[in-house]
Amino acid sequence: MSMLINWTCGVALALFLVGCGNSDLGHAEHNDHGHGHGHDHDESGHAEAQDHTRIAAAVALQSGIRVQAAGPGLIRDAHEVQGLLTPIEGRHARLSARYPGPIRSVTVGVGDTVRKGQTLATIESNVSMAPYSLISPIAGVVLDRRASVGEMAAGQILFEVADLDALWLDLHLFGADAGHITQGLPVLVTRLSDGAIAETTLERILPVTATASQSTVARAVLVNTDRQWRPGAAVRALVTVAERQVPLRVPLSALQRLDDREVAFVQDGEQYHARPLRLGQRDATHAEVLDGLRAGDLVVVEQSYLIKADIEKAGASHDH
Predict the structure, then answer these.
(1) Separation between Cα atoms, residue 141 and residue 92, nearest integer Å
(2) What is the phi/psi pair of residue 63, to 5°?
(3) Measured between alpha carbons, how far is 78 from 213 in angstroms, rounded to an integer?
(4) 52, 274 in Cβ contact below 8 A?
(5) What domains does the chain contain, in order, with CATH numbers?
(6) CA distance 282 to 101
(7) Per DSSP, what are the bridge partners of residue 308?
(8) What is the pTM of this model?
(9) pLDDT digits (tens, 9 = 90+) for 134-166
(10) How far apart are CA 243 and CA 232, in angstroms?
């Protein structure tokens, strides 16, 4: 019966590691003693908790395991808010015909880049019966076109053109955020479509409340020379209201729970040791380390769950 239990547990753990994306970790040596799992024993012969594993460098590289030296850095008090990108006033034009009449030609479409002074359409005036050009007063991109040859231009908006090299970022603040977030604070902006980030600074808090949302609006300018940020898009933003330098911090991706303790895994050659940590403040990306690590320790910051799985596998194998 004991052999059957051992076999069943081994199969289950192997399948677990395969599910983690790297079955080779299940073959890593944990120690040079006995059957290779490296379980230490106290004087009474009982096994101590497994807290390390050995993984060959080639296997670690293939598995995507990455390390980073623990060291000093900033812990930020950052507030997450939602925002909207819009064209900047003065760099945005809506164009209509000066005189009513039929549209004789249209030279641009949505998405086209235009120069200041470029002709967008030709309209025949009903007053003089002579054609005249509708020109763009700014350089930018055509956002909207509502003009077609043969239609009548009679005061409606025919084109919308905007300079997209910079956009307004309007952040909507609710509750306590409206009191904590002020002009001059740094902002980290995340594009929802692909996770790309950009940095900017709050320029002002608008004096009026947004009617629809009843929110206070904080405004910044977002540089957009690559044209990848699009007006009308919703974004997520982290506004840092305070920050503190700490002597030691690690990325949150380095932290795992092992035997009801919060640990990080420290690399020593091909050995990976679990270090129980005492943590201080956290922000959206890092945690302050009060005890358990030293500056310069090589901490696993990517795929740390694979190290945890390998250690737990070895411990479970010994228990059975």
Answers:
(1) 10
(2) -80, -5
(3) 22
(4) yes
(5) 2-73+246-319 (2.40.420.20), 77-87+165-244 (2.40.30.170), 92-162 (2.40.50.100)
(6) 64
(7) none
(8) 0.63
(9) 999 999 999 999 999 999 999 999 999 999 999
(10) 31
